[in-house]
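May I ask for a sample protein chain and its fold as C-alpha cells?
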Amino acid sequence: MYNTQSYTETSWNTVVIRGSKESNSAPVHKVDKVDHSDYYSTQVLYEGPELIAYRRSQKVISIIHTGLSAKSVIFEFPPFLFEHRTDAYKIILEQLGPVVGNGFNPISRKGTCPSGNLIISTEFKNPHVTAKAIEEGVLVDDVKYKATPFKRNAARFNSLIRVNFTIQIFEEDDVLLSNLLSSLSNYGKVYQIKKILCRNFFEGQLSVLLDPSVNDPAIQKYQKITHLMHLKAWDTFVSASSKSGQAISC
C-alpha cells in the first residue's frame, strides 16, 4: 500500500532488505489477457532538453540526409499554425533577432515529415540571441516554441536503459512528475518519462529512459536497476522490466 505522507530517508540496506522480503512474498501475477480492441498511445510527461535536441537533429538528418552547421538551431511548429512558413520566419526575426544571410532552411519541405510539423533551421548572428532562442524561444498564440541546437553526436545516448513499470496510485501530472523524478534519480539521469495510455486513459503504466552512467555529484552512487525498484516518494516497490542499448526514435 502506498504511503503518501512525507518520505523519511532510510538507509539503502534497509530498503534492500524490505525489497527482498516483498519480492519473495509477492504473488505471481497473471499476464493480462490480450484484448485486440485495446488501443495504446503515449503521453510524454518529461523529456530532457539534450534528448529533445538530439531527436530533433536526427529528424533533420533523416529528411535532408546531411547535417547542419555547428551553430545552427532548429525550430519545430505544429502543422497549420502559420498561413505560410515565412510567417514563422518573421516571428523569429521580430522576437529574437537577425539571422546570418537573412536565411532560413525549410527542412520539412525537403522530404517527408511523419508528423507534418513545420521544421526550420537557421543561424543567428549573435550568440546571445542563439542562447535566447534555446532558453526562451518564440511565443505564438500563447505557446512557447523553443529552438534546439543541432546535435550530431549520439555517443552519450548509447548507455540509455528503457525501464517499464506500473504504479497503483494516481496523481495530477505535475505531482506525479515531481515524485517520479525524485524517485528515479536514485537509478540514473532521467531523460524521458512517458505514460502509456489505453484509449487515452492512464492505467498506471509508465516507460522511462535512464542513463546510469552519468555522474551526479549529488548522488555518490546510483542504485542498480533490478526487477524490483524502490520509489522513495511513496516508499514502495514496483516490479520493473528493463532493456539496455535503446534506440532513440525521432
In short: The chain has a mean pLDDT of 84.
